[in-house]
Amino acid sequence: MGIRENIARLREEIDRAASLCGRRGSDITLVAATKTQSPSAVRAAVEAGVDACGENRVQELTEKLEARAYAGAPLQIIGQLQKNKIRKVVGAVDLIQSVDSPALFSAIDRVAGELGIVQDVLVQVNIGKDPDKFGVHAPELDEFLRQVAQWPHVRVRGLMTMLPLEAAQAETRALFARMNEVFVDIRGKKYDNVNMDFLSMGMSGDFFDAILEGANMIRLGSTIFGSRD
């Protein structure tokens, strides 16, 4: 099947998952993970109605911006962001999904302040305590978010997580459920510069379970574009 057909099928699956937990498919933001994809493939996904495009690598983002590949869809960075690449990203994207340290927050705030903007971000949480993954550990999140008030040019819009690659389905569901508990707990508190709008979790292999456990933003690549070489 082509990209348009894949997205139509995914929308049906998203609708089905959302309905099972009392929500609507329109409540779920579908982010096309565009890593390694050509500008023409990205344009096809935008034309087929994805809600946003998410790029992992800053170099690819820059090249595809020049090719106007993302035109018509909000743009996000969903991969780990290095401090030396921040100036190429802040102001160029609508959302940075992977902020996980005070140093990164501070650097984003500085560049955003120079541009006279407020940059939206998500805080990455290492819910599975995976040593191979980045992210704040859940017990440290409350203190971490209380520091956000000192960075007026950064606004936290929610949380994101990536699960261990080898997790079995039962473990995956449990981790997604735990992540949602953290999200709900944080949403019930008051922090400056923090709005818990998005819970970004779930990729091509586990997005259905992620939605069942509370995700309202999912990041899909191969189910949209086909398997990468």
Main sheet overview: 8 strands, parallel
What is the H level of CATH, i.e. the homologous superfamily?
Answer: Alanine racemase
User: What's the shape?
Assistant: globular
Order of helices and strands: HEHEHEEHEHEHEHEH
Unreliable spans: none
Strand order of the largest sheet: 7-6-5-4-3-2-1-8
- Tally of strands: 8
End-to-end Cα distance, whole Å, is 17 Å
Number of helices: 8
* CATH architecture assignment name: Alpha-Beta Barrel
Please tell me how large the radius of gyration is. Answer: 17 Å
Tell me the number of structural domains. 1
Predict the CATH topology: TIM Barrel
CATH class: Alpha Beta
Helix- and strand-based class?
alpha/beta
Task: Describe the overall structure.
By secondary structure, the protein is α/β, with parallel strands linked by helices. The chain has a single domain (3-220), classed as Alanine racemase (TIM Barrel), CATH 3.20.20.10. It is built from eight helices and eight strands. The chain has helices spanning 3-20, 39-47, 58-66, 102-115, 141-146, 169-187, 207-212, 222-225, and strands spanning 29-33, 52-55, 75-77, 95-99, 119-124, 154-160, 194-200, 217-220. Strands 7-6-5-4-3-2-1-8 form an eight-stranded parallel beta sheet. Strand 2 (52-55), helix 3 (58-66) and strand 3 (75-77) form a beta-alpha-beta unit.
